Amino acid sequence: MFTTRFAPSPTGYLHLGHAFSAWTAFEAAQQAKGRFILRIEDSDQTRCRPEFEAAIYEDLAWLGLSWEQPVRRQSEHMDEYQAALSQLESLGLIYRCFKTRKSLMADIAAAPHGPVSASVDHALTVAQEARLLAENRPFAWRLSLSRCRQYLGARWEDLGFLANGNWVKADLERLGDVVLGRKEFPSSYHLASVLDDAAQGITHVIRGEDLADVPHLHVLLQVLFDLPTPEYHHHRLILDADGKRYAKRNQAVTLRSMRENGTSPNQIRALVGL
Ligand code: GLU
Prior knowledge:
The longest helix is centred in the N-terminal third of the chain and has 16 residues, at 16-31. Strand 9, helix 8 and strand 10 form a beta-alpha-beta unit. With 274 residues, this protein is of the alpha/beta class. The protein has helices at residues 16-31, 50-62, 78-90, 101-110, 126-134, 145-152, 189-199, 214-224, 255-260, 265-271; strands at 3-6, 35-40, 72-73, 94-97, 140-143, 160-163, 166-169, 179-182, 204-208, 231-235. This is tRNA glutamyl-Q(34) synthetase GluQRS.
């Protein structure tokens, strides 16, 4: 059955862009007589706040949306992400990256057009790694594209997905060796999103075109974990008068402040071109 989702992170109040995205997914589900699921992407507990989560429910209900219960909250499934990370570790497909933000920035400055993380040099000797671990240095778990390529053999060339109805061959180098987990918490947006979409039976992922690159990597994770690949649909972004995307920190366009100023859901629909 057609199943789609809206998956906000409670790191700020929802704004016009979220309203458009949530309505787009919700109405696609209604049209297909399918299911609409709300998921709270709160695996990074350092950035999420309970009041933002409460506001998500309130704002979406105000827009007229309804969703299935119970709502999946990523923070309640950390053991699943940990198990998946351990599986990749035992296959030798992830490695610890001890690079600091500063040294990553220097890498990027040296190769400004390459994918951010592909420039990471991960050739640590066993002794070097043991020393850094003994020093209790923080690290991130990164997916090694070169090892995945070896592991998948001929299957590597077949990786691809449907986006807006067209078959797209995966370009794995686009995102580089991405972070899948951290020392402090065993997850990342990529890992949790892929595992949750499968756990929730999502057949159609509908979200903004700012995330259009992400399936190039997600399809690889789906194959590694033997999960189905949903269809992707990337919708236009809602831009402000300067042609920029709305940021969560811009209070003026939060649904909450617009509601307080007397804007109605119908006016919001018109503002986002629905
Ligand atoms: N939690 C992500 C965000 O707020 C959602 C990305 C997705 O739909 O996969 O941008």
